[in-house]
Fold these 4 entries.
Entry 1:
Amino acid sequence: MLNKYPLWKNLLILVVVALAFIYAAPNLYPPDAAIQVTPSRAGAEMSAATLSDVRRALDDADISYFGEEVNGSTALLRLESADAQLAAKAAIQRKLGDEFVVALNLAPTTPEWLVNLGAGPMTLGLDLSGGVHFLMEVDMDEYVAGRIANYREDLRTNLRQENIKYRRVTVEGDKVRLSFREDALRSEARTFINRTYPGEFLPQEEEVEGNFDLILMLTEQKVRDFEDYALKQNLMTLRNRVNELGVAEPLVQRQGRNRIVVQLPGVQDTAEAKKILGKAANLEFRLEADPGASRFATEEYTFRDNQNRTARLEKKVITTGDSVTNASSGFDENSFPQVNISLDSKGAARMTQVTKKAVQRRMAVLFVERKPKTTYEMVDGVEQAKTIQVVEKSIISLATIQSVLGSSFRITGLQSAEANELALLLRSGALAAPMEFVEERTVGPSLGAENIEMGSRSVMAGLALVLIAMLVFYRVFGLIANIALAVNLVLLVALMSIIGATLTLPGIAGIVLTVGMAVDANVLIFSRIREELKNGRSPQQAIHEGYDRAFLTIFDANLTTLIVAVILFAVGTGPVKGFAVTLSFGILTSMFTAIMVTRSMTNLVYGGRRVDSLSIGGKV
């Protein structure tokens, strides 16, 4: 029978639409403005005394709050108004000091039954929720220069071990020059370098003032590898630092060859964000001092996890975290936690040299952190905050050296959680390459709210005009298209909520465009039905032919648009990606609603019975 869907297909459409309403529902519950308090030291717990201090600070500042939540080391307090966030943050930070990170946040209000189903609202981007935007540039020239300097030390050591006599090894910009007295020695060195460093150098030969020189220039691929490593390492470090801010859905991503974009929605204090992102941290490997060592050659430090425990270390540093190329936590043959460490050539040579004479002695890993400390002083009768930089050093590991260490070794004697933390600190305790802020923008919460209001108005205005036009031109079929359009918007919001997509202002523009494109497919179908009626087809045949013959046109048009949207997402950044995401999802949902949903409703209205005419408008 024409224009009759089987029961399973109608049920399938009904289930999809019902699920869409469920997973889009959390967006009806706007989040509360909140303050998040977290200890700056990893692993610390939120104590009742600290929570009491937070409450007292808010009460003293006459700031209303409710719904406090404590989850491990994090406390979250909801505020009555977003306007009170900055004042609440300042009051709590003043009360707790620099031992705690106080961040602005948004607390979800989604009902528990929706949360249990895995439903959650869309995340708002920087332009809708407000926050800060930084563009940071990595100094690749300085990083590559440092790597070339490491090659110089590495080559000198290796050539001595191979008994290849050289006059000198010098660095000239982005090149390493090796000088030899004889051509045979240069040839022997070239053969050794090609074997030891395959594909890393482009060697050139020169004769200068009686010396036979070998000039080594890094290949373009090797330079790219260095740059990629530096950028990835800096990305990891920045992501770990951003986590300290407690920001909901921060964005830290690569832009181009040497830049990193950091967007922190909900953060209004630019100085605080820069303070966290610019925090300098490093590691030092030192031997534990002998009992009879002079106090002038030793220093005493506390342990990071226990301030009451101390150890005396030698002042001489074996190597630093700058030499760590990789670190991972695992378990030894006895199932005890350990940290596997890899050093570069310079660090490995120094480690081997020192540990040859230090087997069965203990070596400490010292965490060195340069961080800001806030002090308060009176200026013209007004208390003002002043930030100074202080260096703090604490021991995170003190373990016995079981054998001579080289480029790869392990640290044992840790708990599992300590091993994981140590591996993380070794990997990302310091930036691989120096960075600087090249762009800085702040979006206020009021501007974000205004963007949301204007974006919502644009969607509503576009939707209203489309609904009216469809009713006027296509009557009952226009009403069917309008219902499908509403379902399409619900599907789009649900899909973006399920995958955790971030909604931005360009994303709202994509939704507006989707509204127009969704009814475009229905216009094609309805126009085709009108033509079939003019050609003498019966109403049932006209509906059947209209949907069937318009399908290929709709599919081709949407496929080409989808290809463009995918390309925009692949090559675009930031706002372009936001537009591409909503456009892509909108194309998929509009295809479903225009072809499946409207066909199902049309079948329910006209299918399976004798029909003399169709309420589709126009002259038929």
Entry 2:
Amino acid sequence: MKKTLICTLIGLSIFTSSCNSLLVEDVRSQITDNYLNTPEGFETAVNASYSHIRIFYGQEEGGALSVFGTDEFTNGYGGTFMNLNFYDSGLNPRAPVLATLWDNMYIGINNCNAVIGRADKVPGLDEKVKTTRIAEVRFMRAYYYFLLVQTFGPVHISLKESEGVVVTATRSPIKDVYKVITDDLDFAIANLPATAAIYGRVYKSAAEFLLSKVYLTRAGSEAAGADDYAKAADLARKVIANTNLSLLSSYPKIFEQGAGEKNSEVVWAIQYSTDLLTTGLGNSAHLYYLAEYDRLPGMQRDIANGRPWVRFKPTMFTVMNLFDRKNDSRYEASFKFVFYSNKPGTYTIGQKQVTFAQGDTAIWVADRELTAAELAKKNYSVYPPSAYNDRIYPTLTKFLDPTRVSVQEMRGSRDFLVFRLAEAYLIAAEALMMSGKKSEALTYINAVRARAAKKGSETAMKVTEDQLTIDFILDERARELLGEYVRWFDLVRTGKLLERVKKYNPDGANQIRDFHVLRPIPQTQIDRTEGGIQAFPQNKGY
């Protein structure tokens, strides 16, 4: 069984690994500061350094910061973060979602700094183990800074543990932030093992993957290095060359829950558990993409269909124009269009009396327009694209979680697949294309597309050099990584955020401005900095 313990100390959540060789987290009671200077305390502090990433992946805040306000998704009717999609006055320095990310990333950074700073003081610690653990936390520190610099631009750099109240801070240029990130990841790559002894710990290929993405992102920034694209491609190819990793033969298999979650395509995942005592907030992404099926005739909320929070609605571009439906299996694999009755009875739909038995089709969210004659023949609720609204639309399926313990349960147990091998292929393709090596780039992008092809459509799915543009690669990333908490970052780093939102997201199109490529610095950070806004300036436009 899984057993997890959580401890809290000086703003750090200290976690132990489980007895079944999974890295998991939970909270225990207060302990003394001296515990961190023991071998056991050191290990729990290392494990704690992983925990803060859970604040982003699988939570509504992380989804809103990466999914809303893009060409992929707009808002459903629910939620408190719609300003991130509307780009209106509510997207301001006092928005709580920004402070949540900011504060938790810096708590995570301080956790990492504590481990690094105290490592040499821990008696009896094996040198090889110590070096590996430091490499792990330097990976995590790099990741926290990477999320911060992508979101906010210049941020404060702290590389030593803060043990008391700190009121001084400065915004370092993004080139300095990227230097911290790349130095940390270079150390991680040099010192992490080739494979993870415990599933969930980072290892060499995970660090190579993250650094490839860092270079790809930096290449589109003011801190760009002349060889960033070449470095990104080289690192992505190293990940692909790892013989323990391979693309699965079928796209839907990637997201099979249970034993299937730990497959050869997962480079690194954040783990969750069915044990409600140890899974914390859980992976709640299953709540956010689901249409409101449970208020329609013949339906009621159940565990199998999910609890709909109706947050993230796919844009019409996503459901109508993004996919080659004839040849690409990912369209049908990504969306749920039909709900079967779980509440038998007789209902009025339109002007007709309809009786549902258990398992009858109750809702069809159609993928095409229907004629009046076709609609008249349907004895259930039908929503063609012209009838999609902020409550009813195609549901993204990759996060659904029918293993929840109750109808109302929000905490999901599905692992969040943060790094997938298919994305390494797409990073390599983009970096090579941007380096002027389209022929080589095709090898990688066509490998992803061939895997996604319906049977017999492998040749039809392959593209040629003249089709390979940054817009095509962005479309391919959307097809492959739809809803996986990457899109806003993709559009910003490629300089396509404004163009794509204006073209494909009517809810955000009218109010998005140039300065929205960065989020506002949380007002709480400015207020608690000595010297206020003069010492810690706000981003332009806010």
Entry 3:
Amino acid sequence: MKRSVLALLTAALAAHAGALTSQAAAEAQARAILPRLTLDDKIGQVSMAHVFRFTEGGRSAPIRADADATFRALRPGTLLNGGGDAPQPNTPRGWADFLARLDTLGRANNPANLPAVFGTDAVHGVNNVPAATLYPHNLGLGAAFDPALTREVALATAQDLRALNMGWTFAPVADVGRDPRWGRYYETFGESPWLVADQVEASVDGLQSGGVAATLKHFTGYGLPSLGMDRANAEISQRAMHEVFLPPFRAGIRAGALSVMANSGSVNGVPVHASPALLTDLLRGELGFGGLLVSDWNDIERLITTYRTHTDLVRAAAASVNAGIDVYMVPNNVEAYQNALREAVQTGLVSEARLDEATLRVLTFKARLGLLDAPLAGSGVLNDHRDLARRAAAATLTLLENPADTLPIRKGRVLVTGPAMDSAAIQLGGWSVNWQGVGKGNVPDVPKVATLAPALKASAPAGVTVSALPETKRPQLLTAAKGADVIVVAVGEAPGAEWQANNPALSLPDGQITLLRDLLATGKPVVAVLMAGRPLILPSDVQSRLSGLVMAYLPGTQGGPALADALYGRAGFPGRLPFTWPDSLTQVGLWSDRPSEGAGEPPLPLYPLGYGLDYTTSVARDLTVTPGPDGVTAQATLTNTGERAGTVTVLLRASLPASGALQATSRPVGVLRATLKPGESRAVQITVPNERLSSWVGDAYGPGAWQLLPGQYTLSAGDGKATLSLP
């Protein structure tokens, strides 16, 4: 009997671990605490200190014996680990114990026994922990066009975060990827605003259903940096802001995201961290966000050192807090910021009411996560999510070229080579154990990754033999190539993040191009598998001679087996491009929703948004549209016209009436998708909300507004097309 009662209690606690406290109850808790806090207490609550302030030597090491004094001095409301910063040992149990100890110290030494909430970048799984499962980066999930899968990945990530005593992740990225040269392009779900919005909504729902606070980042305009340089200025009109960059944030806010992170860059010449128009009028007012707004790394100090828009930290702190920032991620010098904010309040540059507002949001945030009710009690045990990671990787894979049906590989001698054939670093990309990826920095841990070459060897079907040689052994490799029936060469980008991952030429390293040319010169069929966080431009003499080209994105820990299944034909290629693949650098900026201009029709890209081949063929026909009070229901018949099962993915596009301003020739507004048997047909329908058919109407300068314009709308999906009049 005792055992059954204990089991019921354990189950109840486990169920509660994933539940967020209601906004009303959380705010009531917070309001009861706020009057008990002094000015210094409040300043502490709105400061984010790095966890290394509490460890020996300020590095990955045990907690210092005098860490309690640091808590009493800083009174931090939030704690941060940077990408790759970890306790010792960097194990699930090590993380759970480390954070539980910090939680205990915070409660014992912070004002009103307040715990400090811990935030981390868990952007494709719990990526700082070598033992954790890592999933495809967002760009790959965008290629799956399956929000349910994105939600499943987010929920699994939340479960692991809770087990490690982490309750707040700086994810998902809600930026729209508009320049593939940008180092954070792979962190976006793609280029199309409303399709990205669906993914963001799913990610927020999955994370917060698992009891972890989601963070929409980076508000806003971060995805259009000039020259493709990270943290560069973005020039964005009111129309582009509303039609392109806000829809994913609006979707995430509607999904209940508890926090938002500000853009590190500037928009129209104003640093976002000092822009009341963006952070208060737009985010709080127009979008109705009521949660916690956090800065990005050190970005208030950058107002002085980088942007030179403010003369000292007091004025920079005042400008940022008054613009709307609630919590400053101040890893380098917490004391300097706290002194500056104190002076700003005491001299009237920041009102006590504004500081109270920010503090109340911090307290409410903690209350919603249940941190004010009980100490952290994570199990320190991660779930085995390898099957999910493999399914996720398989769903992303996109076949771009297969001119002679070289794929699938059914027999013969296969030679596999290339720098990505057995590289955890390339396969995982940035934000993997270390901020810049595996092998970067001073983090020695390498996670267990199922890579391509071992997977091809281990799962080769009868009649297929596989050998592998590194590209560094060029003479032996070229000799072996002459005896192969198919050469699979895995190429890709070195891992990186933010500005260090910028790729201004959209190119592979020269050595990899030489490798491809050397292998093509053997006359044998060459299948290139590309692991990259963006479209890359191959020289025409390489591109035109490939017998196969597979875009694998950054597929995560189970990418190797997923690729082997697809290359051998045990599975297909369900992924479709979530971006427009340019033919040359001059086509950067050629998006699927680019309007007609005075210069004439836009050029054709190498591959359009939504492009992808498979081992089967499909068609979408008989599109019908039915207007309703809140939107338009579109239905089409999807048919698998081939001889193999496969996933049919078709973008639904809308052409809008004239608005007085340039309109996209056709705007992607949704996706019709079904997995079908050979010859199977299925009617699939979705409802397109009216806002996805609305236009931002206004002149080049001055006010604008959303309008559902009266007139004829044309919706298309595959071979199907239908028109209707609205409203």
Entry 4:
Amino acid sequence: MIRRRPPLALLLPALLTVAGVLLPLIYLLIRALGAESSELREIVFRARNINLLGNTLLLTVSTLVTTTLVALPLAYLAARTDLQPRRALMLTGVLPLAIPGYVGAYAMIAASGPGGTIDALTGITWPGPTGFWGALGILTLFTFPYLFLNLHAALRTQDPALEDAARLLGRTPAQTFRDVTLPYLRPAWLSGALLIALHVLGDFSVVSLMRYPTFSAAIYQQYTAAYDRVYAAWLALGLLLVTGATLLLEARLMRGLHLARVSPGGARELRTVHLGRARPLAWAFVAALTGAALIVPLGTIGYWLRLETNPFAWASLAEALKSALGAATIAAVTTTALAFPLAYIGSRAQGRLARFTERAAYLGYATPPLAFALALVFFSLRVAPPLYQTFPLLILAYTLHFVAEAVGPIRTGLSTATPRLEEAARLLGQTSRGALTRVTLPLIRPSLLISAAFVFLSVLKELPLTLLLAPIGFETLARNVWAYTEEAQYAAAAPYALALALSGAALTLLILRRERRPAPRPTRPTKEQA
């Protein structure tokens, strides 16, 4: 049952979501163009803009290279080789995602230099991360899981007949990997690389702590320190242009990719690669990665945690944790509620309006958080000043920014809940709303929970939106980690960093566990159920 027109009850909230995403960005453009012509020329043609663009692109491209060099070998080891236990390899590839970049930066800074964790425990003064190389290292360690998950899934589902055919034609294992496996991984790599590129383009916390100037760092500096909001708006527009170019490049590279098999054939198991003498080298790689991405950050947090003896810090931690969990819970519910109409329209409806509605909502997620927050600041001050720096505006920002993140799992669930079940319910006397609430929603309940968990985790770690839009006195875990790290108060930041890392790890493991469960098998509703 594919509808040509989306139902009005779902179309209205979907259009409101799209309006909420687009209007602040449109006003950001108006604000940027509202300056005098002489001021505009001076702003647009500043030499600093070229430097910021070069730094931003260099860091983005370099991070894509380094994350590939980390994620691809680890994914291959976990998916294709006899290296055991595989659960440990999966945890190494996934758990760094639970540690926000600014927490990783805090841990690396606190571990290095005179008086750092490494110096205190070993007497060795390890040089502190800084500049381009520091930002590159930290972003690599805590964003490579985006690529690992995509590559691992692709390697596990590749048809082994492709590699077998290449070997029968005389190709060596290395040639087979280069000519057959790598091209097959291209869609998975592009999907993960897009997420990493968007993350790097929107990051300001890591680059600020590393003292590496990029567009995002300059936006935050201009808005909070220099109070030059016109220049900040132009920087945000420049960042949006870079992001848009990245999205267009990814779409162009994905165009024309058709890797599906013509005939499904019989299911065959993937051949396990025996490492042999390469096993110690593989374990050395995994151990080094685990140490850098997990042991050093968590060990550093634990070291500084025992130095925090102020009793008021723990009371403040409880208050910040309560605020963070409360905001994340509300945002998860509102975002999932708005994501369902978008996912339903995208999977069940046809036509330009349906395509526009779904794709426009993704603009909020593709927009770097700092630029999106700045747009909401300008828009709220102009249209509804009492809304500025209030809790509802913060929840609205979380919802509009992360709604696209929640659409994916719901749409996947809708793809397994065949429309014929709704059709059957209608034939048994149910209205469209009754069929939706009694048949479809129960079937996709696991997908709704996964979407809510994704948003909950993202909101818990979110920093730029919180810094610019949170009410005065509203403390969260992310905000306090950032504030104390900026002041080099590593012991004071440790409780908040640990709470963030543990919360993120618990949610990440929960999401992975639910995603491994088989989807419920759809059943035809009886007359009583319908």
